[in-house]
Amino acid sequence: MTQQAEGSPQITLHDRLCQLLDGPAPLDKRALLGRLHAEITSRETRAYTAGWNDALAESRRPTR
Question: For residue 6, what are the contacts with CB-CB under 8 A and spacing of at least 6?
Fold first, then answer.
């Protein structure tokens, strides 16, 4: 699996989940849940970080 497939913002969560479900090797339930959890946590962390970065950039702008 490529790094792009695991964490790229260009691929939607739906598409990534389809990749995991329809992948070449079937995953057992425990492995699939682990992969889904890792994927969602990664995306959630990136979104949270992006929000903080936006807020910090906004707070540093000079006010008129």
Answer: 39, 42
11: which residues sit within 8 A by CB, 6+ positions away? 4, 5, 19
pLDDT in tens, 8-64: 457 888 888 888 888 787 778 888 889 889 988 998 898 888 888 887 788 777 776
pTM: 0.56
Cβ-contact 36, 20 below 8 angstroms: yes
What number of other Cβ atoms are within 10 A of residue 16's Cβ? 20
CA 26-47-2 angle, 5° bins: 35
Residues 6+ apart with CB under 8 A from 8: none
CA-CA distance, 56 to 40, in Å (whole number)?
24
